[in-house]
Amino acid sequence: MPSLIRHLRTLPLVDLLIGVAVIVLGTVEALTVATSYGAAENPEFWWMLQAIVTGVLVVYRRRFPVAVFILMLLAQYAWHRQGNEECPVWQLASLLIVFHTLGAKLPPKPGASWAIVGILVFDSGAVDHRTLPLEEVIFLTVIFGSAYLTGLALRGYQMRAQRMAERAAHLELERERRAAEAVAAERTRIARELHDVVAHSVSMMVMRAGVLRRSLGGDNEILSGIEQTGREAVEELRIMLGALRMPQDEALPQPGLDMVDSLVSTVGWSGPRIGLTVEGDPVRLPPGLDLSAYRIVQEALTNAVKYAGEAEVTITIAYREDVVELDIVDNGTTGQTAAGTGLSTGNGLIGMRERAELFGGSLEAGPTAEGGFRVHARLPISQGISMSERAR
Protein backbone atom coordinates (compact mmCIF):
# COMPACT_ATOMS: atom_id res chain seq x y z
CA MET A 1 0.00 0.00 0.00
CA PRO A 2 2.73 2.60 0.78
CA SER A 3 4.34 1.95 -2.62
CA LEU A 4 0.96 2.43 -4.31
CA ILE A 5 0.47 5.75 -2.52
CA ARG A 6 3.96 6.90 -3.56
CA HIS A 7 3.17 5.93 -7.15
CA LEU A 8 -0.14 7.81 -7.14
CA ARG A 9 1.66 10.92 -5.91
CA THR A 10 3.76 10.88 -9.08
CA LEU A 11 0.63 11.17 -11.24
CA PRO A 12 -0.86 14.58 -12.10
CA LEU A 13 -3.71 15.49 -9.76
CA VAL A 14 -5.92 16.51 -12.69
CA ASP A 15 -5.58 13.05 -14.25
CA LEU A 16 -6.44 11.37 -10.97
CA LEU A 17 -9.53 13.54 -10.55
CA ILE A 18 -10.69 12.81 -14.11
CA GLY A 19 -10.18 9.09 -13.59
CA VAL A 20 -12.16 9.18 -10.35
CA ALA A 21 -14.92 11.16 -12.07
CA VAL A 22 -15.18 8.52 -14.82
CA ILE A 23 -15.40 5.72 -12.24
CA VAL A 24 -18.06 7.57 -10.21
CA LEU A 25 -20.13 8.42 -13.29
CA GLY A 26 -19.92 4.84 -14.56
CA THR A 27 -20.97 3.48 -11.16
CA VAL A 28 -23.94 5.84 -10.97
CA GLU A 29 -25.11 4.86 -14.45
CA ALA A 30 -24.65 1.17 -13.69
CA LEU A 31 -26.85 1.46 -10.62
CA THR A 32 -29.57 3.70 -12.06
CA VAL A 33 -29.98 3.74 -15.86
CA ALA A 34 -28.35 0.54 -17.14
CA THR A 35 -31.51 -0.75 -18.82
CA SER A 36 -31.85 2.41 -20.93
CA TYR A 37 -28.60 1.47 -22.67
CA GLY A 38 -29.72 -2.08 -23.49
CA ALA A 39 -28.79 -3.91 -20.27
CA ALA A 40 -30.96 -6.86 -19.22
CA GLU A 41 -31.47 -5.62 -15.68
CA ASN A 42 -30.96 -2.59 -13.50
CA PRO A 43 -28.57 -2.29 -11.70
CA GLU A 44 -25.83 -3.87 -13.80
CA PHE A 45 -22.92 -4.52 -11.42
CA TRP A 46 -20.64 -5.76 -14.21
CA TRP A 47 -20.50 -2.22 -15.55
CA MET A 48 -18.83 -1.00 -12.38
CA LEU A 49 -15.73 -3.12 -13.10
CA GLN A 50 -15.63 -1.79 -16.66
CA ALA A 51 -15.90 1.78 -15.33
CA ILE A 52 -12.94 1.16 -13.02
CA VAL A 53 -10.83 -0.19 -15.91
CA THR A 54 -11.77 2.77 -18.08
CA GLY A 55 -11.00 5.26 -15.29
CA VAL A 56 -7.54 3.73 -14.80
CA LEU A 57 -6.85 3.95 -18.55
CA VAL A 58 -7.84 7.62 -18.55
CA VAL A 59 -5.43 8.31 -15.67
CA TYR A 60 -2.46 6.98 -17.70
CA ARG A 61 -3.52 8.43 -21.06
CA ARG A 62 -0.83 11.16 -21.08
CA ARG A 63 1.99 8.77 -20.23
CA PHE A 64 0.97 6.15 -22.82
CA PRO A 65 -1.38 7.88 -25.31
CA VAL A 66 -1.17 5.28 -28.11
CA ALA A 67 -1.41 2.24 -25.82
CA VAL A 68 -4.38 3.70 -23.94
CA PHE A 69 -6.06 4.61 -27.25
CA ILE A 70 -5.74 1.05 -28.55
CA LEU A 71 -6.97 -0.43 -25.25
CA MET A 72 -9.99 1.89 -25.29
CA LEU A 73 -10.92 0.67 -28.78
CA LEU A 74 -10.63 -2.93 -27.61
CA ALA A 75 -12.73 -2.13 -24.53
CA GLN A 76 -15.44 -0.68 -26.78
CA TYR A 77 -15.31 -3.79 -28.95
CA ALA A 78 -15.71 -6.00 -25.87
CA TRP A 79 -18.53 -3.77 -24.61
CA HIS A 80 -20.62 -4.27 -27.74
CA ARG A 81 -19.77 -7.98 -27.96
CA GLN A 82 -21.64 -8.32 -24.65
CA GLY A 83 -24.81 -7.29 -26.44
CA ASN A 84 -24.89 -3.69 -25.25
CA GLU A 85 -26.45 -1.55 -27.95
CA GLU A 86 -25.45 2.00 -26.96
CA CYS A 87 -22.43 3.73 -25.46
CA PRO A 88 -23.11 5.26 -22.02
CA VAL A 89 -22.01 8.79 -21.11
CA TRP A 90 -18.93 7.77 -19.13
CA GLN A 91 -17.57 5.75 -22.05
CA LEU A 92 -18.25 8.49 -24.58
CA ALA A 93 -16.58 11.09 -22.33
CA SER A 94 -13.54 8.82 -21.89
CA LEU A 95 -13.24 8.32 -25.66
CA LEU A 96 -13.37 12.07 -26.27
CA ILE A 97 -10.66 12.64 -23.64
CA VAL A 98 -8.42 10.02 -25.23
CA PHE A 99 -8.87 11.49 -28.74
CA HIS A 100 -8.04 14.90 -27.27
CA THR A 101 -4.87 13.46 -25.73
CA LEU A 102 -3.72 12.15 -29.13
CA GLY A 103 -3.72 15.70 -30.45
CA ALA A 104 -2.14 17.23 -27.33
CA LYS A 105 0.67 14.73 -26.72
CA LEU A 106 1.66 13.35 -30.15
CA PRO A 107 3.28 15.21 -33.06
CA PRO A 108 0.77 16.15 -35.78
CA LYS A 109 1.53 13.36 -38.28
CA PRO A 110 1.36 10.29 -36.00
CA GLY A 111 -1.39 11.87 -33.89
CA ALA A 112 -3.56 12.57 -36.94
CA SER A 113 -2.90 9.05 -38.28
CA TRP A 114 -4.08 7.40 -35.08
CA ALA A 115 -7.10 9.71 -34.83
CA ILE A 116 -8.16 8.92 -38.40
CA VAL A 117 -7.74 5.21 -37.77
CA GLY A 118 -9.94 5.45 -34.68
CA ILE A 119 -12.64 7.42 -36.49
CA LEU A 120 -12.67 4.92 -39.38
CA VAL A 121 -12.95 2.01 -36.95
CA PHE A 122 -16.03 3.55 -35.34
CA ASP A 123 -17.57 4.73 -38.63
CA SER A 124 -17.17 1.33 -40.29
CA GLY A 125 -19.19 -0.41 -37.59
CA ALA A 126 -16.27 -2.66 -36.63
CA VAL A 127 -16.79 -1.77 -32.97
CA ASP A 128 -20.60 -1.87 -32.97
CA HIS A 129 -20.89 -5.04 -35.12
CA ARG A 130 -23.44 -3.31 -37.35
CA THR A 131 -23.73 -0.94 -40.27
CA LEU A 132 -24.08 2.62 -38.99
CA PRO A 133 -26.55 5.06 -40.58
CA LEU A 134 -25.11 8.15 -42.25
CA GLU A 135 -26.22 10.58 -39.53
CA GLU A 136 -24.44 8.49 -36.88
CA VAL A 137 -21.29 8.34 -38.99
CA ILE A 138 -21.32 12.12 -39.32
CA PHE A 139 -21.95 12.52 -35.59
CA LEU A 140 -19.04 10.24 -34.62
CA THR A 141 -16.71 11.88 -37.15
CA VAL A 142 -17.52 15.38 -35.89
CA ILE A 143 -17.24 14.72 -32.16
CA PHE A 144 -14.08 12.57 -32.33
CA GLY A 145 -12.48 14.84 -34.92
CA SER A 146 -13.30 17.91 -32.81
CA ALA A 147 -11.82 16.27 -29.71
CA TYR A 148 -8.58 15.57 -31.61
CA LEU A 149 -8.46 19.15 -33.00
CA THR A 150 -8.88 20.69 -29.55
CA GLY A 151 -5.90 18.63 -28.38
CA LEU A 152 -3.93 19.75 -31.45
CA ALA A 153 -4.79 23.38 -30.70
CA LEU A 154 -3.64 22.95 -27.09
CA ARG A 155 -0.37 21.44 -28.28
CA GLY A 156 0.19 24.40 -30.58
CA TYR A 157 -0.48 26.85 -27.76
CA GLN A 158 1.93 25.05 -25.45
CA MET A 159 4.65 25.00 -28.09
CA ARG A 160 4.20 28.73 -28.76
CA ALA A 161 4.35 29.43 -25.03
CA GLN A 162 7.52 27.37 -24.75
CA ARG A 163 9.13 29.22 -27.67
CA MET A 164 8.19 32.56 -26.12
CA ALA A 165 9.67 31.48 -22.77
CA GLU A 166 12.89 30.38 -24.47
CA ARG A 167 13.03 33.66 -26.38
CA ALA A 168 12.47 35.63 -23.18
CA ALA A 169 15.25 33.66 -21.46
CA HIS A 170 17.54 34.33 -24.42
CA LEU A 171 16.75 38.05 -24.34
CA GLU A 172 17.40 38.13 -20.59
CA LEU A 173 20.78 36.48 -21.09
CA GLU A 174 21.57 38.95 -23.84
CA ARG A 175 20.57 41.85 -21.60
CA GLU A 176 22.77 40.53 -18.80
CA ARG A 177 25.67 40.12 -21.24
CA ARG A 178 25.35 43.69 -22.46
CA ALA A 179 25.09 44.95 -18.88
CA ALA A 180 28.22 42.99 -17.97
CA GLU A 181 30.04 44.48 -20.96
CA ALA A 182 28.99 47.98 -19.88
CA VAL A 183 30.18 47.31 -16.33
CA ALA A 184 33.49 45.96 -17.63
CA ALA A 185 33.96 49.05 -19.79
CA GLU A 186 33.24 51.33 -16.83
CA ARG A 187 35.62 49.37 -14.61
CA THR A 188 38.33 49.72 -17.23
CA ARG A 189 37.71 53.47 -17.45
CA ILE A 190 37.88 53.85 -13.67
CA ALA A 191 41.09 51.81 -13.56
CA ARG A 192 42.64 54.00 -16.25
CA GLU A 193 41.72 57.20 -14.41
CA LEU A 194 43.02 55.86 -11.10
CA HIS A 195 46.29 54.91 -12.76
CA ASP A 196 46.68 58.23 -14.53
CA VAL A 197 45.76 60.45 -11.57
CA VAL A 198 45.89 58.81 -8.16
CA ALA A 199 48.78 56.40 -8.65
CA HIS A 200 50.88 59.08 -10.27
CA SER A 201 50.16 61.59 -7.48
CA VAL A 202 50.96 59.10 -4.70
CA SER A 203 54.19 58.10 -6.44
CA MET A 204 55.24 61.77 -6.61
CA MET A 205 54.46 62.17 -2.88
CA VAL A 206 56.65 59.17 -2.06
CA MET A 207 59.50 60.49 -4.18
CA ARG A 208 59.36 63.93 -2.54
CA ALA A 209 59.23 62.42 0.94
CA GLY A 210 62.31 60.38 0.08
CA VAL A 211 64.16 63.41 -1.19
CA LEU A 212 63.27 65.34 1.97
CA ARG A 213 64.34 62.45 4.21
CA ARG A 214 67.70 62.15 2.52
CA SER A 215 68.25 65.90 2.68
CA LEU A 216 67.68 65.75 6.48
CA GLY A 217 70.19 62.98 7.03
CA GLY A 218 68.17 59.90 6.01
CA ASP A 219 67.01 58.68 9.44
CA ASN A 220 63.80 60.63 9.96
CA GLU A 221 61.24 58.08 11.26
CA ILE A 222 58.16 60.08 10.20
CA LEU A 223 59.37 60.55 6.63
CA SER A 224 60.38 56.90 6.47
CA GLY A 225 56.89 55.98 7.55
CA ILE A 226 55.40 58.24 4.87
CA GLU A 227 57.54 56.56 2.25
CA GLN A 228 56.57 53.08 3.45
CA THR A 229 52.87 53.89 3.58
CA GLY A 230 53.04 55.52 0.16
CA ARG A 231 54.72 52.48 -1.38
CA GLU A 232 52.13 50.22 0.20
CA ALA A 233 49.37 52.48 -1.15
CA VAL A 234 50.87 52.33 -4.63
CA GLU A 235 51.08 48.52 -4.39
CA GLU A 236 47.49 48.30 -3.20
CA LEU A 237 46.42 50.56 -6.05
CA ARG A 238 48.27 48.29 -8.47
CA ILE A 239 46.40 45.26 -7.14
CA MET A 240 43.07 47.13 -7.25
CA LEU A 241 43.69 48.27 -10.81
CA GLY A 242 44.49 44.72 -11.83
CA ALA A 243 41.27 43.51 -10.19
CA LEU A 244 39.25 46.22 -11.95
CA ARG A 245 40.61 45.15 -15.32
CA MET A 246 39.80 41.48 -14.66
CA PRO A 247 36.36 39.97 -15.37
CA GLN A 248 34.08 40.27 -12.37
CA ASP A 249 33.98 36.53 -11.80
CA GLU A 250 37.79 36.41 -11.78
CA ALA A 251 38.45 39.45 -9.58
CA LEU A 252 40.87 39.10 -6.67
CA PRO A 253 39.37 38.41 -3.26
CA GLN A 254 38.83 41.40 -0.99
CA PRO A 255 40.40 41.60 2.49
CA GLY A 256 38.49 40.36 5.51
CA LEU A 257 38.79 40.08 9.26
CA ASP A 258 41.43 37.36 8.89
CA MET A 259 43.76 40.09 7.56
CA VAL A 260 43.41 42.43 10.55
CA ASP A 261 46.62 40.99 12.00
CA SER A 262 48.49 42.08 8.87
CA LEU A 263 46.82 45.48 9.10
CA VAL A 264 48.07 45.90 12.68
CA SER A 265 51.64 45.11 11.68
CA THR A 266 51.38 47.49 8.74
CA VAL A 267 50.39 50.54 10.81
CA GLY A 268 52.52 49.62 13.82
CA TRP A 269 55.36 51.93 12.72
CA SER A 270 53.28 55.00 13.59
CA GLY A 271 53.72 54.63 17.31
CA PRO A 272 50.62 53.34 19.14
CA ARG A 273 50.93 50.03 20.92
CA ILE A 274 48.18 47.95 19.33
CA GLY A 275 46.67 44.88 20.93
CA LEU A 276 44.47 42.47 18.99
CA THR A 277 42.11 40.04 20.71
CA VAL A 278 39.82 37.52 19.03
CA GLU A 279 36.99 36.05 21.09
CA GLY A 280 34.89 33.06 20.12
CA ASP A 281 35.27 30.68 17.22
CA PRO A 282 36.09 32.64 14.04
CA VAL A 283 33.71 32.00 11.16
CA ARG A 284 34.03 32.70 7.48
CA LEU A 285 31.69 35.58 6.81
CA PRO A 286 29.92 36.40 3.53
CA PRO A 287 32.36 38.36 1.31
CA GLY A 288 30.51 41.69 1.50
CA LEU A 289 30.09 41.53 5.27
CA ASP A 290 33.71 40.42 5.76
CA LEU A 291 34.99 43.33 3.67
CA SER A 292 32.81 45.87 5.50
CA ALA A 293 33.96 44.58 8.90
CA TYR A 294 37.59 44.86 7.80
CA ARG A 295 37.08 48.41 6.51
CA ILE A 296 35.45 49.47 9.79
CA VAL A 297 38.46 48.19 11.74
CA GLN A 298 40.83 49.77 9.24
CA GLU A 299 39.16 53.18 9.42
CA ALA A 300 38.88 53.16 13.21
CA LEU A 301 42.53 52.13 13.56
CA THR A 302 43.62 54.79 11.07
CA ASN A 303 41.82 57.43 13.11
CA ALA A 304 43.46 56.21 16.32
CA VAL A 305 46.90 56.28 14.71
CA LYS A 306 46.29 59.69 13.23
CA TYR A 307 44.74 61.50 16.19
CA ALA A 308 45.71 59.60 19.34
CA GLY A 309 49.45 60.00 19.03
CA GLU A 310 51.31 57.51 21.23
CA ALA A 311 48.11 56.09 22.69
CA GLU A 312 47.49 52.41 23.23
CA VAL A 313 44.88 50.90 20.95
CA THR A 314 42.92 47.76 21.72
CA ILE A 315 41.12 45.87 18.95
CA THR A 316 38.64 43.19 19.96
CA ILE A 317 36.87 40.96 17.42
CA ALA A 318 34.20 38.89 19.12
CA TYR A 319 32.33 36.14 17.26
CA ARG A 320 28.98 35.59 18.98
CA GLU A 321 26.23 33.15 18.09
CA ASP A 322 24.58 35.39 15.52
CA VAL A 323 26.69 38.57 15.43
CA VAL A 324 30.29 39.65 15.15
CA GLU A 325 31.25 42.57 17.38
CA LEU A 326 34.11 44.95 16.64
CA ASP A 327 35.55 47.10 19.42
CA ILE A 328 38.40 49.56 18.73
CA VAL A 329 39.42 51.68 21.73
CA ASP A 330 42.33 54.07 22.28
CA ASN A 331 43.21 55.61 25.63
CA GLY A 332 43.96 59.08 24.15
CA THR A 333 47.10 59.71 26.16
CA THR A 334 47.95 62.84 24.17
CA GLY A 335 44.73 64.49 25.21
CA GLN A 336 43.61 64.78 21.61
CA THR A 337 41.10 62.20 20.46
CA ALA A 338 39.34 61.47 17.27
CA ALA A 339 36.21 62.90 18.77
CA GLY A 340 37.81 66.27 19.20
CA THR A 341 39.63 66.43 15.91
CA GLY A 342 37.11 64.73 13.63
CA LEU A 343 37.32 61.48 11.77
CA SER A 344 39.53 61.03 8.75
CA THR A 345 38.38 61.98 5.31
CA GLY A 346 38.30 58.36 4.13
CA ASN A 347 35.13 56.51 5.00
CA GLY A 348 34.79 58.49 8.24
CA LEU A 349 32.19 57.92 10.88
CA ILE A 350 29.36 58.23 8.36
CA GLY A 351 30.96 55.68 6.06
CA MET A 352 31.54 53.21 8.90
CA ARG A 353 27.94 53.56 10.08
CA GLU A 354 26.64 53.08 6.54
CA ARG A 355 28.71 49.92 6.16
CA ALA A 356 27.26 48.53 9.40
CA GLU A 357 23.65 49.48 8.60
CA LEU A 358 23.95 48.01 5.11
CA PHE A 359 24.01 44.54 6.70
CA GLY A 360 21.43 45.31 9.39
CA GLY A 361 24.00 46.17 12.05
CA SER A 362 24.77 49.20 14.15
CA LEU A 363 27.77 51.35 15.02
CA GLU A 364 28.47 53.52 18.02
CA ALA A 365 31.41 55.92 18.23
CA GLY A 366 32.41 58.54 20.76
CA PRO A 367 34.83 59.60 23.49
CA THR A 368 35.37 57.44 26.55
CA ALA A 369 35.34 58.56 30.19
CA GLU A 370 39.12 58.10 30.33
CA GLY A 371 39.66 60.60 27.52
CA GLY A 372 40.09 58.16 24.68
CA PHE A 373 37.85 57.21 21.80
CA ARG A 374 35.82 54.07 21.14
CA VAL A 375 34.25 52.59 18.01
CA HIS A 376 31.89 49.67 18.58
CA ALA A 377 30.09 47.85 15.76
CA ARG A 378 27.62 44.97 15.82
CA LEU A 379 27.18 43.09 12.54
CA PRO A 380 24.58 40.28 12.23
CA ILE A 381 25.95 37.05 10.79
CA SER A 382 23.44 35.87 8.20
CA GLN A 383 25.56 32.86 7.29
CA GLY A 384 28.97 31.63 8.25
CA ILE A 385 31.19 28.56 8.32
CA SER A 386 33.36 27.81 11.31
CA MET A 387 37.06 27.92 10.56
CA SER A 388 37.50 24.63 12.44
CA GLU A 389 34.73 23.05 10.35
CA ARG A 390 36.34 24.37 7.19
CA ALA A 391 39.67 22.84 8.27
CA ARG A 392 37.99 19.47 8.66
Automatic annotation (TrEMBL):
GO molecular function terms listed in the Swiss-Prot or TrEMBL record: kinase activity
Domain Histidine kinase/HSP90-like ATPase: residue ranges: 288-383
The EC number(s) this enzyme carries: 2.7.13.3
UniProt organism field: Microtetraspora glauca
Name this protein carries in UniProt: histidine kinase
Alphabetized PANTHER family for the sequence: NITRATE/NITRITE SENSOR PROTEIN NARX-RELATED (PTHR24421), NITRATE_NITRITE SENSOR PROTEIN NARQ (PTHR24421:SF10)
Matches recorded under SUPFAM superfamilies: ATPase domain of HSP90 chaperone/DNA topoisomerase II/histidine kinase
Enzyme class: transferase
ATP-binding listed as a keyword: yes
Gene3D superfamilies: 1.20.5.1930, Histidine kinase-like ATPase, C-terminal domain
Catalytic activity, reaction form: ATP + protein L-histidine = ADP + protein N-phospho-L-histidine
UniProt entry keywords in alphabetical sequence: ATP-binding, Kinase, Membrane, Nucleotide-binding, Phosphoprotein, Transferase, Transmembrane, Transmembrane helix, Two-component regulatory system
Matches recorded under InterPro entries: HATPase_C_sf, HATPase_dom, Sensor_HK_TwoCompSys, Sig_transdc_His_kin_sub3_dim/P
Superkingdom of origin organism: Bacteria
Transmembrane segments annotated in the record for this chain: 12-39, 45-75, 137-157
